[in-house]
Amino acid sequence: MTIRLRPTTPDDLDRVLDAEAHRENAPFVTQWTRAQHAAALDHPDMRHLVVETVPDGRAVGYVILAGLAGARDGAELRRIVVTDKGCGYGRETLRLIKTMAFRDLGAPRLWLDVRTNNPKAKRLYEEVGFVEDRA
Ligand SMILES: CC(C)(COP(=O)(O)OP(=O)(O)OC[C@H]1O[C@@H](n2cnc3c(N)ncnc32)[C@H](O)[C@@H]1OP(=O)(O)O)[C@@H](O)C(=O)NCCC(=O)NCCS
Question: For 3-127, CATH number?
Fold first, then answer.
C-alpha cells in the first residue's frame, strides 16, 4: 500500500481536528482551531494536505507545509500527523514532502521543529536526512 498527498478540503476538517486532538498526537503538535486550519487551506504561503492511501483513498493523516512565499529560511514542515501509525506512512509522507519542497517548489531548505519529548519522530527525521540545528 502506498500513499499520496492531496489538498485538504473543508470536508476534511473534522477528521483533521480529531487527529490533531487525539491523545496519541496532541502532546507532540500545536493545537489549531477550525478557523486556523480553514485559513490555511487557501493561504498562499501554505500547503495543507491530506495523506491518503492509494488506491482506496483512505485518509491516514495530514501535513502542513509553510513558508512558501519566498522566505529566506526555506520551506517549513509546520505539522505532520499520521493516524495509522507504524505502517511506513510517515516515512513515505516525508519522502513526498521533500520532493514537493525541493523539486516542485524550489525551496533552498526544508526545516521543522521537533519537541524533545518526541524521540520517535526525531529518529524518523534523522533517518530521512534531517540534520539537527540547535541554533
Ligand atoms: C511521527 C509520525 C508522523 C510517524 O509516522 P508513522 O507512520 O507512525 O511512522 P512510520 O511507520 O513511517 O515509521 C517510521 C519510523 O518511525 C519509528 N517508529 C515507528 N513506530 C514506532 C514505535 N511504535 N516506536 C518507536 N519508533 C517507531 C521507526 O524508526 C520507524 O522506522 P522503521 O520503519 O525502520 O521501523 C506519527 O507517529 C505521528 O503522527 N505521531 C504523532 C504526531 C507527531 O509526533 N508528529 C510529529 C511532530 S514533530
Answer: 3.40.630.30
